[in-house]
């Protein structure tokens, strides 16, 4: 398998189009056409991780965090980022990152946290906007089923737990072919009227290229009339953070002990206790201060995240408990998630879970 083959499998799980605009995701180092000898999955790509990849004969590193975030004007080895890039290139090792694409994925980082904590009835905390597209096109009656089936096979028409969703309206289409045309129906220079069906269906923005190709290849007309709109509906299955429920209520101290145990956290920084039981929980892996308002609006009892600053704890406003367990701690199971997924998809391939320690924070 090539690097591109394996990253395509990852992008079926976490499409890069769902990454945040500020992020740097995808293949960061290496040749997409290179044949892969083995894959090493890690949270961060540091020099010790590249050394581990060399030792395990892995020439592809799947790293949740991107080693290259901003632009590199020089690569001289003066800092850890440049040294990692140099060492990877010298040893023909590719580096790929999916970061916020995996954060936003339905079964990604936050779903894994929910699984570890045993949360039920989960849903997205902050659904992502501008991710749903709507296709409208016009098809001769006799060709409707063929075109519809091609569109559905390309990913159009999926809404939540339903597939093959569409809406049709009958009408008449007109056109007049010029001398350079090769009309499927009608004659050059004559206005033709055809009984047609107006078809509309939705699709995810990551599927636009496949959907358009399916339309053009299955439609009988030489020139296909269609338009695509981005609709305002939020995608309830894609977005940042998740909300879920414990199977039974816990006291605040019992929940924090549960949190420390399940998430292997050394400590929990938290806002004031409210002296009420914990049942509904919001989680967001990594730096989640931007979601405090959303967590309060969701009516949760506690919001588990990382990297909260001093004054941000005040934002709890005695409405919820904020629990900061650390950046690494919230995301540590991400590499297990990726290994499990890849192992299921390519079971006879060498997929390794990195054993290198990459957490930069120590506790005394």
From TrEMBL:
One of the Pfam families matching this protein, by short name: DUF34_NIF3
Signal peptide range in chain numbering: none
The entry's keywords: Metal-binding
Membrane spanning stretches: none
Record flagged with keyword Metal-binding: yes
Recorded GO MF terms: metal ion binding
Binding-site positions, a divalent metal cation: 65, 103, 327, 331
GO CC annotations on file: cytoplasm
UniProt family annotation: Belongs to the GTP cyclohydrolase I type 2/NIF3 family.
Subunit structure: Homohexamer.
PANTHER family with a match to the protein in the record: GTP CYCLOHYDROLASE 1 TYPE 2 HOMOLOG (PTHR13799:SF14), NGG1 INTERACTING FACTOR 3 (PTHR13799)
Annotated protein name in UniProt: GTP cyclohydrolase 1 type 2 homolog
Lineage start: Bacteria, Pseudomonadati, Bacteroidota, Flavobacteriia, Flavobacteriales
């Amino acid at each position: 398998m090539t690097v591109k083959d394996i990253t395509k499998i990852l992008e079926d799980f976490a499409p890069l189009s769902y990454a945040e605009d500020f992020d740097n995701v995808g293949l960061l180092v290496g040749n997409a056409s290179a044949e892969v000898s083995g894959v090493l999955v890690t949270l961060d790509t540091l020099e010790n991780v590249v050394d581990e990849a060399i030792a395990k004969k892995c020439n592809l590193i799947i790293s949740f965090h991107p080693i290259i975030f901003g632009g590199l004007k020089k690569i001289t080895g003066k800092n850890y980022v440049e040294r990692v890039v140099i060492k990877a290139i010298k040893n023909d090792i590719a580096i790929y990152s999916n970061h916020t694409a995996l954060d936003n994925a339905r079964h990604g980082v936050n779903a894994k946290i929910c699984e570890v904590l045993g949360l039920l009835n989960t849903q997205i905390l902050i659904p992502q906007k501008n991710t749903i597209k709507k296709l409208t096109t016009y098809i001769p009656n006799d060709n409707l089923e063929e075109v519809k089936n091609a569109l559905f096979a390309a990913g159009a028409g999926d809404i939540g737990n339903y597939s093959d969703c569409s809406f049709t309206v009958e009408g008449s289409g007109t056109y007049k072919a010029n001398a350079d045309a090769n009309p499927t129906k009608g004659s050059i220079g004559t206005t033709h009227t055809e009984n047609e069906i107006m078809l509309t269906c939705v699709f995810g923005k990551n599927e636009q290229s496949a959907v358009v190709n399916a339309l053009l290849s299955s439609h009988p007309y030489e020139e296909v009339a269609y338009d695509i709109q981005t609709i305002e509906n939020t995608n309830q299955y894609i977005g940042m953070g998740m909300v879920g429920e414990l199977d039974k209520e816990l006291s605040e101290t019992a929940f924090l002990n549960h949190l420390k145990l399940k998430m292997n956290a050394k400590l929990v920084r938290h806002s004031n206790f409210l002296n009420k039981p914990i049942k509904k929980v919001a989680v967001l892996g990594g730096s989640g201060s931007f979601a405090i308002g959303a967590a309060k609006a969701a009516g949760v009892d506690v919001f588990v995240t990382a990297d909260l600053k001093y004054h941000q704890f005040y934002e709890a406003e005695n409405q919820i408990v904020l629990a900061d367990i650390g950046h690494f701690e919230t995301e540590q199971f991400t590499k297990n998630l990726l290994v499990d997924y890849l192992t299921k998809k390519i079971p006879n391939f060498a997929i390794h879970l990195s054993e290198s320690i990459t957490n930069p924070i120590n506790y005394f």
